[in-house]
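Deliverable D2.4 — example input (structure tokens):
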């Protein structure tokens, strides 16, 4: 049985932990908390208060985090990995062909 949220419509602790993990992923990707806050369309103070556990978070923040990382709300709350792909590898020089006409 899952624990009850702190208030009606709120998030339980495992959901908050999963959302914080996604925010850390965004921080590694974006480089600053300001850029993360801009990406999820919330003030930096709100994002940092949620990260520090001062604020319990809410469904609007959860939806925004999920949308930003490309997950459904359910996948974000249950801790599914982000579907983002690694950057494509680009060859600096094309491979050389052996013999024959080019």
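Example output (designed residues):
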């Amino acid at each position: 049985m899952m624990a009850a949220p702190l208030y009606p419509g709120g998030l339980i602790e495992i959901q908050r932990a999963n959302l914080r993990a996604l925010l850390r992923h965004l921080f590694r990707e974006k480089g600053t908390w300001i850029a993360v806050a801009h990406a999820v369309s919330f003030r930096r103070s709100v994002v940092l208060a949620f990260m520090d556990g001062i604020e319990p978070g809410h469904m609007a923040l959860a939806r925004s985090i999920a949308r930003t990382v490309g997950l459904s709300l359910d996948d974000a709350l249950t801790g599914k990995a982000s579907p983002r792909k690694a950057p494509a590898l680009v060859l600096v020089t094309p491979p050389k062909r052996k013999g024959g006409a080019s």
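The mean pLDDT is 81.
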